[in-house]
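Could you help me review a protein record that somebody else here produced? This is what I was given.
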Amino acid sequence: PYAGPPALAPYRALAPRLPPLPAACGIACVEIGAGQLGRASAIFAAAGFAVSSRDDLNGVPRCLILSLDRG
């Protein structure tokens, strides 16, 4: 239930607003909930971000690392 559409709404709202914020070669880090890696990554990738992730201490994907290639 935590990875479904209502839980992903904040990411859908943030993704189109975020591209102007990271400086050239900068990153943005976004915390995600358990089970949200695939869907949240897809939302940010569709907004033009390169997406990687980092796990928490229990090995659960917990943070998306977002970057834009601004040349």
User: Anything to note?
Assistant: Residues 5-14 form the longest helix (10 residues). The chain has a mean pLDDT of 85.
